[in-house]
Amino acid sequence: MTDCIFYGGKGGVGKTTCAAATAVALADAGRETLVVSTDPAHSLSDSLEVDLGPEPAPVALEPSGGNDAEPASGSPTNVAAGTLWAAEIDPDAQAQRYEKLATALAADLRSAGIRLSDEEVERIFAAGTPAGGDEIAALDLFVEYLESDDPDWDVVVFDTAPTGHTLRLFDTPEVMGLALETARSLRGQVRRIGSAARTAMFGPMAGMRGDDDGDDLEAFRDRLERARELLVDPDRTEFRVVTIPEGMAIAETERLVDRLREAEVPVERLVVNRVFEAPPEGCPRCADRRERHAARVAEIRETFSDLEVVTVPELEGEVQGLEAVRTVSRRLPAE
């Protein structure tokens, strides 16, 4: 079965870099790996320096090695690569997946004499869904990627949206389940009314209306239910929280970890990114910053004593390109 690793946290802490680094390390280790960005502000393509779209595309990897630094556990050097795929989800493009559901509901309401425009029905449909379309698209494609047979990925790494979006993402299955159940019930009532009216007017010919939109609605709900099951399965899913050594980020990380645990989502590892470790000589301000970061990391280890805490040093410039990403991967356990 396909395993899944989520990276989440406050915006701007380096989730994309960590997701890309983990995916590259897994691919370097010979695993068939897919990394997916569900963050509306995509930067995965920048990290890997490739053009990406919503469809998974292969990322050519040169064999790793040639660096004196120690690799992360499970990421051997000099291993033939070429098993990395990547994709960036476009929420706007994914919206068309759900337009058919609202359109079908509008047709049923009109057939029963309820005069609502498509726009009005779409607003009603959206009213039962407080989460945004990007979270719905992420969950829908989450199942699609994990259940894909072509190719059959060993691991899917998700670069999720910032904390607020992430929290809604994990709320979405239950919320959408209720909304879809209500919509299905409404459609059933409307169709019975419409069917009786058509039969009275047109006789047996009234039943010759082919329509499988109900199956689409049911399939959509089933995918969300499977997504929920996968998200809370500790044998298949792990959520890794990324933070930085700053007070506000640590406070938000506490809220995120608490929320994930309430949702029974497995959280085992916390990544402290951009830790200032090597100040230049003769720079008192730099030394003070290193001490401050060291104190923050100690605070994080104490606060999250039940989690594995991994630190990633602050690097000069943007982390772009495979070699830069591999530099980060050497500090991140691949699995």
From TrEMBL:
Residues 38-78 are annotated as: Disordered. The keyword Flavoprotein does not apply. InterPro entries: ArsA/GET3_ATPase-like, ATPase_ArsA/GET3, P-loop_NTPase. The keyword Protein transport does not apply. It comes from the Archaea. SUPFAM superfamilies: P-loop containing nucleoside triphosphate hydrolases (SSF52540). Belongs to the arsA ATPase family. This is Arsenite efflux ATP-binding protein ArsA. It comes from Natronobacterium haloterrestre (Halobiforma haloterrestris). The lineage of its organism: Archaea, Methanobacteriati, Methanobacteriota, Stenosarchaea group, Halobacteria.
